[in-house]
């Protein structure tokens, strides 16, 4: 079966089965920020820039609990829904719109690749 990787403004990044519940994978972006895609234990998927708002720890290596990831460096809790630091910590990491359709994960193209002009010029 062939599945297009260009469905409108959404990037097909592969099947949901590539990320087991409670884990994350990263998506390198040429000329942009690496994205972390999370699969929660209650079967939700979220995507964030893979940099903690504290000191840029790799959130993809953190522990997922509920809809939160604990940063592996200093244990800040970051909301997977909003990208915001929770509790008394302050800061926010950009989120990337994500959808799941027919067992595949899609990211909003414009959020992953913000400037097509810049890419062409590179
Ligand atoms: S870098 Fe994430 S808590 Fe410090």
What order do the helices and strands come in, and which of them pair?
Blueprint: E1 6-7, E2 10-15, E3 23-27, E4 35-39, E5 45-49, E6 63-65, E7 68-70, E8 77-79, E9 95-96, E10 98-101, E11 104-108, H1 109-112, H2 116-121
Residues 52, 54-55, 57, 71, 73-74, 76 line the site of FE2/S2 (inorganic) cluster.
GO molecular function, one term: nitrite reductase [NAD(P)H] activity
Pfam families: Rieske_2
Protein name: Nitrite reductase (NADH) small subunit
Features:
8% helix, Rieske Iron-sulfur Protein, binds FE2/S2 (inorganic) cluster, four-stranded antiparallel sheet, mainly beta, 122 residues
Structure in words:
The structure is a single chain. The protein is mostly beta strands. It has one domain (6-110): 3-layer Sandwich (Rieske Iron-sulfur Protein), CATH 2.102.10. Helix content is 8%, strand content 35%. It has helices spanning 109-112, 116-121; strands at residues 6-7, 10-15, 23-27, 35-39, 45-49, 63-65, 68-70, 77-79, 95-96, 98-101, 104-108. The strands form 3 sheets. Strands 1-2-11-10 form a 4-stranded antiparallel sheet. A 4-stranded antiparallel sheet has the order 3-4-5-9, with no helix packed on it. A 3-stranded antiparallel sheet has the order 6-7-8, with no helix packed on it. It is globular, with a radius of gyration of 15 Å. It starts with 5 loop residues before the first strand and ends with a helix. FE2/S2 (inorganic) cluster (FES) binds at residues 52, 54-55, 57, 71, 73-74, 76. This is Nitrite reductase (NADH) small subunit. GO terms for molecular function: 2 iron, 2 sulfur cluster binding; metal ion binding; nitrite reductase [NAD(P)H] activity. Pfam families: Rieske_2 (PF13806).
